[in-house]
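Hi there, hope your week has been kind to you so far. It would help a lot if you went through both lines with me. No rush at all, and the record is pasted right below:

***
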Amino acid sequence: MWRRIVVNTSLGSADPSPHARMRSHNVRTLAIAMALSAATAGAQGLTPQNVEIHGFGSWNSGATNNSNLYLGAQNRGSSRNSVAGITLTGHMDEKLSFITQVKFDFSGTTQTALDYVFAQYDFRDYLKLRAGQVKQPFGLYTETIDIGTTRPFIEAPMAVYGPTANIAEAYRGVGLTGNVPVFMGMSLDYDIYGGGLNRDEYEPTLDAYRVLQGYRPWTGVSDGVGTELTDQTYGGRLMINLPITGMRIGSSGYHGNTNELPIPGRGNIRTIAHSFEYVANRVALRSEVLREIESDHDRQNGWYYEGAYRVAGGLQVAGLFDRASTHLKGKKRGCAAPCSDYPELGKSLLSHKETAAGLNYWFSPSFVMKLSYHHIEGNRFAQPNRDDLVAKLSAAYAIPGNTTSPLPNETDAMLLGAQFSF
């Protein structure tokens, strides 16, 4: 027997990567696949009682004042950065649901990715089981990292959410989540999970630094984003919803193993973050601090303060202070000069200091135009493309005794974009 599919397109927005564009033929293909799936399931008596369809999109252009690239911005400007996605939720009954999200990226070429796909069974509000490729519960932004209407800037703060393998978009495994009321209007949101992660990192940055330490040749510098497969992972998050409306604090963390070395205990990674959020009326304040430690003594630290205020109507002003630092183990044993434990020539590759100001206009909670100015010190995230990075650093490295970096240490960037969700 056929069941009626009810489409719900409501999506609540909070206050005010390589990006991509969803093409019409992809949308048609997805719609056809949905229809065929519904028909097949209906014939088997497995059609969901209702299906929710949500979506999001983002586009931005930007320009920098030098050869460094930052958040899609480049010298003389670029408008090739867009992303769009569809989230489908099928409710089989009042307890069982299936959730999947597909994303389309465009930054010169179009790429399609399956962000997550998982099943959720609700025993109670305080106990829900999730299994599959599940969105990772970490910090304030990870679960909504692609949805620009949940934040005041085009991207989430780089110090915590940048391409440094601190987080993953999803974990592959099993988890529990829920909300537990406590007392005096307070409640706890918790997540516990185990399985594996795909952690993405933009690799040329640290690869180049390791050349300066004697660990690899210049030809060994990778190009683009690489994925670290992390298994034997367990983690969780606990957020406390305070009696003050819109305020919550909490911590997130996970432990895993990258299997990079065939030695027990080597390749272990531990990441923890502490979060604060206050969103009420016209005000939005957020802050997080993160620390990642690997068993080979590499470590990363990051923190940020982010604030926004609705001046009048849909007009909003925003500010950001963002800091990140990376520490890598010393030079390769036996490496002769000019190898160095902490080469001055590449020092800027390990740090990021950013101050940003934004001016946004919210036409509705689901559609916003954003304009922002960013001043960046360091080259952790603001740097030339891979080939220019290698060419400049290798030329400077070949000069005996040179400690002056050829990379612009300070970058100014202007970004203009539009973001929506439904």
